[in-house]
Amino acid sequence: MAKTTDKISAAKSTEDLEADIRQLQADIAKLTQQLAQTGEHGLGAARRAAAQGAEHLRERGEAAMEKLRGNAHDIEDQIATTVREKPMTSLAVAAGVGFLFALLSRR
Fold it and tell me: Is there a contact between 90 and 82 (Cβ–Cβ < 8 Å)?
């Protein structure tokens, strides 16, 4: 009788082990799926962050270009005003700058 009881408990143990293995396989499959979803979410978040960063840099670049354009326009206005107010001085400065460029270009 002891042998029959041992065989029954061994059969139950084997069935229990097989059930545990199936449960473990299901859990591993579930974990794998969750990890894949987490990776996709992380990739999506990284893409969004990169796109937002690129947009922010583009906006800053455009603002800097506008500021430079404004400064260049102001300098142009100042030069035009100075030339109108002091034409002889402006002509002398232009001649001097031209002379310096000529000296530098000969070397």
Answer: yes
